[in-house]
């Protein structure tokens, strides 16, 4: 997808020489809706219960959805929008991460403080690993065959050898840990230290912390997504409702843009250069990456209240987000959106 947004004639050169963009509060520059609902379907329930992270198994074309407060996890066929399995024994599942070469996924079970190992062939939990307190987001470093799980309230990062399905090391911090991400270009794992507003770097070759950097005026950096090609991290700042762009070369924040209320999960679609932040107040904040240093807010796309997680299919550019209520009525359903509008 080519970039088509700096349509300012000769002013383009001037714009590219400026410092990284700091969007004014409330700035929205979309000419129309950025998303269109194309499908919705019920999930096995129960209704009115909180969901959490989603991930996509691109090999089998599955969407894996953690239904946190229902203590179960769904495997959904993306081609048919049908639930092909409901995996139980995932109490309080928050994070969920797919490991392609082993045909397994891992759930972060906050209600019993375990990491669940799920065999996709059997569609059931085959092992549980005890963690510290409230395992949450997770990331897989494929070249190292390691899974990194943030024990949020335990202020720790549990490191799992996925070949052995054993926790081989736990890193401890002086802060609750937010979402981790693995950067395949830098070959580093990043983790948000959300109480301290710090961005930490882990070397997966040694599992040592090799850097800690402040994230500027971002408060409560919980969610994270990466643009590894352009060496950028995108942080959702729960404490002051900002989306922060972090330069992974210079290790400094370079842009801050306003979010809707209650930001949580953040995702990046590199094909469209779009960033999506699911916000509990009832919006998906949508941004465009014009280039590595320039970002625009397109809109706060209205969704149901309590929607706070989203997955992006990078092949179709579709968004998936679960709903626990519709106009105040409890439900359990998945909604599918197509990317449209200003790109």
Assign the CATH topology: Methylamine Dehydrogenase, Chain H
Q: CATH H level: which superfamily?
A: YVTN repeat-like/Quinoprotein amine dehydrogenase
Helix segment count? Answer: 1
- Give the CATH level 1 class: Mainly Beta
Q: Could you list the spans in which at least 5 consecutive residues all have pLDDT below 50?
A: 1-28
Shape: globular
The radius of gyration computed from the alpha-carbon positions, rounded to a whole number of angstroms, is 19 Å
Overview of the structural elements:
With 343 residues, the protein is mainly beta. It has one domain: 7 Propeller (Methylamine Dehydrogenase, Chain H). It is 2% helix and 55% strand. The strands form 7 sheets. A 4-stranded antiparallel beta sheet has the order 1-28-27-26, with no helix packed on it. Strands 2-3-4-5 form a 4-stranded antiparallel beta sheet, with no helix packed on it. The chain has a 4-stranded antiparallel beta sheet with strand order 6-7-8-9, with no helix packed on it. The termini are close together.
């Amino acid at each position: 997808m080519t970039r088509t947004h700096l349509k300012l004639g000769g002013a383009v050169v001037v714009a590219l020489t400026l410092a990284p963009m700091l969007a004014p509060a409330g700035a929205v520059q979309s000419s129309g809706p950025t998303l269109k609902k194309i499908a919705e379907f019920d999930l096995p329930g129960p209704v009115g219960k909180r969901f959490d992270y989603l991930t996509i198994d691109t090999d089998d074309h599955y969407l894996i959805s953690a239904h946190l407060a229902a203590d179960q996890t769904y495997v959904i066929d993306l081609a048919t929008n049908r639930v092909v399995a409901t995996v139980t024994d995932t109490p309080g599942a928050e994070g969920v991460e797919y490991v392609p070469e082993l045909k397994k996924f891992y759930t972060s079970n906050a209600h019993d403080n375990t990491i669940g190992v799920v065999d996709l062939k059997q569609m059931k939990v085959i092992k549980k690993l005890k963690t510290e307190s409230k395992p949450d987001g997770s990331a897989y470093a494929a070249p190292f065959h390691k899974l990194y799980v943030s024990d949020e309230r335990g202020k720790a990062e549990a490191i799992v050898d996925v070949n052995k399905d054993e926790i081989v090391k736990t890193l401890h911090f002086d802060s609750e840990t937010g979402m981790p991400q693995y950067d395949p270009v830098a070959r580093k794992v990043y983790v948000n230290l959300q109480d301290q507003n710090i961005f930490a770097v882990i070397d997966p070759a040694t599992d040592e912390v090799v850097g800690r950097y402040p994230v500027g005026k971002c408060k409560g950096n919980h969610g994270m997504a990466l643009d590894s090609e352009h060496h950028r991290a995108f942080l959702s700042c729960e404490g002051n409702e900002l989306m922060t762009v972090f330069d992974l070369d210079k290790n400094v924040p370079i842009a801050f843009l306003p979010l809707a209320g209650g930001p949580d999960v953040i995702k990046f679609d590199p094909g469209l250069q779009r960033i999506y932040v699911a916000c509990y107040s009832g919006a998906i904040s949508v941004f465009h990456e014009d280039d590595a240093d320039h970002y625009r807010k397109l809109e706060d796309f209205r969704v149901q209240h309590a929607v706070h997680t989203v997955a992006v299919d990078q092949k179709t550019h579709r968004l998936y987000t679960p709903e626990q209520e519709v106009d105040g009525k409890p439900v359990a359903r998945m909604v599918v959106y197509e990317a449209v509008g200003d790109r």
